Please model this.
Amino acid sequence: MLTERQLAERVGAIPGMGRIAAALADAPPCYLVGGAVRDLLLGRLPADVDIAVEGDAEEAARLLAAELGGTVEPHRRFGTATIAPSAATGLPHEINLAGTRRETYQVPGALPEVEPAPLSEDLRRRDFTVNAMAVDLVARQPALHDPLGGCDDLAAGLIRVLHPRSFEDDPTRLLRAVRYAVRLGFALEPGTERLARAAVAAGAPATVSGGRVADELLDLLAEAEAPAGVALMRELGLDVALCPALAADADLVAGAQLAAGETGADPVLAALAALLCRRAEVGGAAGWVDRLEIGAAARDAVLRAAASAPELAARLRGPLAPSALRRLLDGEPAEALALALALGAPGEPVLDYLGRLRHVRLEIDGADLVAAGVEPSPALGRALDAVLERKLDGELGGRDAELAAALAAARGA
Ligand code: ATP
Model:
């Protein structure tokens, strides 16, 4: 347990904290809350700063922006505001302010109704004890508010919900529990684990909108420890509860994460595709991926990768001429290549394709053939394609050879 002085030192060590506290001196009581407090107590520097205001958060955000610069983006429904100070200030890139509030869940899985309430109630609406602590921001000697035993659970390495209905109210907390457990190397407290299994068995994850699932699932897959998270998802039955077409395979996710670095794939999308590709019928998951609302390009890359990677992996294991390799991989998203590698495809042809073959171009084009008297027609494009294949296979060297081969192909067609 830290002394108040040690705590004050750690708060002061967050870049820009002195300026933030000074700017809020005349605001209603303000507290550092959530992950920032957890990370400070663990001796880690928090990435984001979340501030709870016992009063008007938007007004406090304006005071802060007037002092720090940056833009204020208010979210009126929840009485919150975000400030993004300009990079030059060296301040955290995001400072989130929220009025302290109570939340009521009318419909399980839906967003809650909110109304202003004191800090003590605000802490009680949170997900886990380790995230339900606050530190006074403006007080000369900041005190820790820990009414729910967050410090004890930090010391014991436990993720514990605050009440038995927590996962039913908001099943995204199942994914959050997994994320914090693997990131911090913590265990689910036994009662919390029982509640998690009961919520999964009752089908709670299906009550959440796809967009909210995506927010939490992609955050989990972005963790360095994502494979361990995926293993825990599977252990809890959370994968199939989210979508019956998911099969959480930790080794495959680890392989996809690793291969994403070699292929230029997005590691999170490659990991998501890895969750989908163990099922024979990827098509069954298309509707679920649609509902995640991750954007058309990301959706297409994930579904394509999940569907094509097993066959790519099989074909890459056999002998392939360079032209056949290029034909096989052209048009595949980088995530498909990453997943094929994760499924055991040999690295050498994939790296040869990425580093060399996909960049090979002819020195001639259609205009050269027309200039040589060939009538413009689709046959001309086919002739150029055939010549490119021969070039890839090392059969042609130089522009003249390309032109002669293309003219022969176009005229013979
Ligand atoms: P990270 O380090 O991953 O950003 P964080 O704790 O800052 O962790 P956020 O998602 O930014 O995570 O949430 C900030 C705080 O808001 C949490 O610490 C928690 O107290 C509260 N919170 C966020 N999501 C929920 C939720 N679904 N239910 C209850 N409380 C939540």
In short: The chain has a mean pLDDT of 93. The chain has 22 helices and eleven strands. Residues 34-35, 47-48, 50, 126-127, 131-132, 170, 172-173 surround adenosine-5'-triphosphate (CB under 6 Å). The first helix runs from residue 4 to 12.
